[in-house]
From TrEMBL:
Coiled-coil parts of chain: none
Annotated source species: Halanaerobium congolense
GO MF annotation terms: GTP binding; GTPase activity; metal ion binding; ribosome binding
Subunit structure: Monomer. Associates with the 50S ribosomal subunit.
Name of the protein described by the UniProt record: GTPase HflX
Gene name of the encoded protein: hflX
Keywords: Cytoplasm, GTP-binding, Magnesium, Metal-binding, Nucleotide-binding
GO CC annotations on file: cytoplasm
Length: 416
């Protein structure tokens, strides 16, 4: 059997400035295409027909023909009308940033949940773009934007897509209900790893817990959330949750679809905001690092309770000069500075978690009746046991225990 190899697409990128196109190029490369030309346009009123002016459309068409490109990628999301008009005018495939990100997610979805989430996002993106395109969709006969779950060469009508969207949403409701059951049975506090894509969350998770999560130096290397238990020196177990990375202009369909995954962030007791320090520059306020931090901070503020403890963790410090590291330490004095890959200062993350959890624990002495011996395993799993004696009428325990559990055991507290 012969395997047909898909030809690499050659893309012209279109955006407002070179800075925005830098990240779009990384996305395009992650999706498997090659950037052969970048073009910028002036910040002006958006054209309802083409997004950009008709003169710029003509310029893009001529440039694409000159470099033999077969793909035009806009950094901003295009409306269905704008996308159709641009393709008719330029006469090659036109896609936008949202479509590129959806394609990458389709490549990297492995679990049942993430596949459902990506398929739902793809269908919700494609549905308004079916009108007037014809069922053959000849210009979308391969390449970025056509891969992934739900791909049926788009020979489906609106009604079938709507029915599929409904079924996928019902499946996600079932997954959400299952998550809530699991969450209600959890007693250990949760620390969620949050950050811009490729900040090193999975690498840190692996170093702290030996989770074995896939890691790669690319955008959206992992989509599936991972949860692992970590025992702190204080004796308390904590659950680390690795979540999908954020990115600028993340398609709203993906945010909606990944809501069940992001609920782990909403329910976290501690947020570890992982930051790629290697993106820092001399003028820190305008660096890629700062821009990425603002994007993640915005999402965190929308997701978590204001009382949630948020710790900034600057990663990849092995890739920056000592002077830059010193500057970051002055600007962000309450933050942690590590290299997860090189295992530099990893212990500071554990120590910080230990400090936060310790502040939520109290020392107490218990005289536990043998009829309540079921608490023993729970105490050993969640507390630091200093002393344990099996006496004639009860079990004596001296422990450092979470305040939440202590409140349930206060009637067995030994009076001093």
């Amino acid at each position: 059997m012969y395997q047909i190899q898909e030809m690499q697409e050659k893309a012209v990128l279109v955006g407002l400035n070179e800075g925005e196109l830098k990240e779009l190029q990384l996305l395009i490369e992650t999706a498997g295409a090659k950037t052969i030309l970048k073009m910028t346009y002036h910040d002006r009123k958006i054209d309802p027909a083409y997004y950009i002016g008709s003169g710029k459309v003509k310029e893009i068409k001529e440039a694409a023909e000159t470099v033999a490109a077969n793909l035009i990628v806009f950094d901003n999301e295009l409306s269905p009308v704008q996308q159709r008009n641009l393709e008719d005018k330029i006469e090659i495939k036109v896609i936008d940033r949202a479509q590129v990100i959806l394609d990458i997610f389709a490549r990297h979805a492995h679990s049942r949940e993430s596949k459902i989430q990506v398929e739902l996002a793809q269908l919700e993106y494609r549905l308004p773009r079916l009108q007037g395109r014809g069922i053959e969709m000849s210009r979308l006969a391969g390449g970025i934007g056509t891969r992934g779950p739900g791909e049926t060469k788009l020979e489906v009508d609106r009604r079938r897509i709507e029915k599929k969207i409904y079924r996928l949403k019902e499946n996600l409701k079932e997954i959400k209900a299952s998550r809530e059951v699991q969450r209600s049975s959890r007693q250990d506090p949760i620390a969620a790893l949050v950050g811009y894509t490729n900040a090193g969350k999975s690498t840190l998770m692996n170093k702290l817990t030996g989770a074995g999560s896939h890691t790669a130096d690319k955008l959206f290397a992992t989509l599936d959330s991972t949860m692992r238990q970590l025992q702190l020196p204080v004796g308390q177990n904590i659950i680390l949750s690795d979540t999908v990375g954020f990115i600028n202009k993340l398609p709203h369909q993906l945010i909606a679809s990944f809501r069940t995954t992001l609920e782990e962030v909403e329910n976290a007791d501690i947020i570890l905001h992982l930051i790629d320090a290697s993106n820092s520059e001399i003028d820190a306020s305008n660096s890629e690092m700062e821009k990425n931090m603002r994007i993640v901070n915005k999402e965190i503020n929308e997701l978590v309770d204001p009382s949630c403890k948020i710790i900034k963790v600057f990663n990849k410090i092995d890739l920056i000069e000592q002077s830059k590291l010193n500057d970051l330490k002055i600007i962000y004095p309450d933050s942690l500075f590590i290299s997860a890959l090189k295992e530099i200062n990893i212990d500071t993350v554990i120590n910080k978690l230990n400090e936060i959890i310790s502040n939520e624990m109290i020392e107490m002495e218990l005289d536990l009746p043998y009829s309540e011996a079921k608490w023993i395993e729970k105490i050993h799993n969640t507390a630091k046991v200093y002393e344990e004696k099996y006496q004639k009428n009860n079990i004596y325990l001296k422990v450092l225990i979470p305040k939440k559990i202590a409140s349930k055991l206060k009637k067995y507290r030994r009076e001093s």
